[in-house]
Write a structure and sequence with these properties.
The protein is an alpha/beta fold and 285 residues long. It has 14 helices and 4 strands. The protein has one domain. Strands 1-4-3-2 form a 4-stranded mixed beta sheet. A hairpin with a 5-residue loop joins β2 and β3. The longest helix is centred in the middle third of the chain and has 20 residues. The two termini are 34 Å apart.
């Protein structure tokens, strides 16, 4: 476990100030600026009333009814951005499956990851258990609708991409092993949304458990060029309880995809003095 340096803290603060000038939606769109196919898909998703209501109701199920962390629009945007960034870094040393199999390009792979990341949790409107299966059922018509705008004159490409997206959604929560690079990326990108902002609402509402307490210790996640492997993921935390979040969620998803495991190095980094997450006393019963 590395120590966070003063120089890195200053750099992070400057980056955070810069990012605050843009909305999260703007940041995602800016990430997609060099891929016209993804821009079309993203705009279609953002304007689709059914998609937006599903995200709203998924969050209602997760936060209001179950006391879980965010599973709505903000989560979808963060996961989408992380997924694209992760794919781009990984593709420097690993071919996406749609490219390797000869049914698409790197730009198509980004469309797969974007749609998989954006839609992966909409099945939460039905239930948490088996939400991956419910998401596939709800997403089929949505994916068809979006892809008809992205590839209006190429039905074969629509079908190829749809299959990849649905597989990524189905396998994002380790219920089934991800059998494509893109599917593995969607699952890992989901786990990368682990910072304290996601857990703050249920935590402050009294839903205190190892999951929420661990998430409250995570300050930031970075995706960057690796040293010994293709990609380096850094999880910056203020309390050692964050290790639970890393090992139980992120590490398990990386290990569930052997093809990606050999290309990802994962580091937990302490940020300065350890912060106390809980008070001196916590009533359990």
């Amino acid at each position: 476990m590395n120590t966070y340096t003063k120089k890195q803290r200053v750099s992070d603060k400057m980056a955070k100030t810069q990012k605050q000038r843009y909305t999260l939606k703007d940041r995602v769109r800016n990430t997609l600026k060099n891929n016209e196919l993804c821009r079309k898909a993203f705009d279609a998703l953002e304007k689709d009333e059914e998609v937006q209501v599903l995200l709203e109701d998924s969050n209602r199920m997760a936060i209001d009814r179950m006391g879980y962390s965010d599973h709505g629009h903000t989560h979808s945007l963060i996961v989408s951005m992380n997924g694209i960034l992760l794919l781009r870094e990984l593709s420097k040393g690993l071919q996406p499956s749609i490219v390797k199999e000869g049914t698409g390009t790197l730009e198509d792979a980004e469309v797969v990851v974007l749609l998989g990341c954006y839609l992966h949790d909409v099945g939460m409107v039905v239930a948490r258990i088996n939400h991956d299966i419910f998401t596939v059922a709800l997403a089929i018509q949505i994916v068809d609708r979006v892809l008809s705008k992205v590839y209006p004159d190429d039905r074969r490409k629509q079908v190829h991409v749809r299959g990849h997206v649905l597989h990524a959604i189905y396998s994002h929560d380790i219920a089934a092993p991800p059998l494509t690079v893109e599917a593995g990326i969607v699952g890992i990108a989901d786990a990368l949304d682990m910072t304290k902002g996601r857990a703050r609402i249920p935590f402050e509402a009294g839903s205190v458990n190892i999951h929420s307490a661990s998430a409250m210790a995570i300050n930031r996640v970075k995706i960057k060029k690796g040293e010994s492997k293709t990609v380096r993921i850094e999880v910056i935390m203020s309390n050692t309880s964050g290790i639970f979040q890393i090992q139980e969620l992120l590490e398990k998803k990386i290990r569930s995809s052997p093809e990606l495991l050999s290309h990802i190095e994962l580091y937990a980094i302490m940020h300065g003095e350890e912060e106390k997450i809980l008070g001196e006393e916590l009533r359990v019963l």
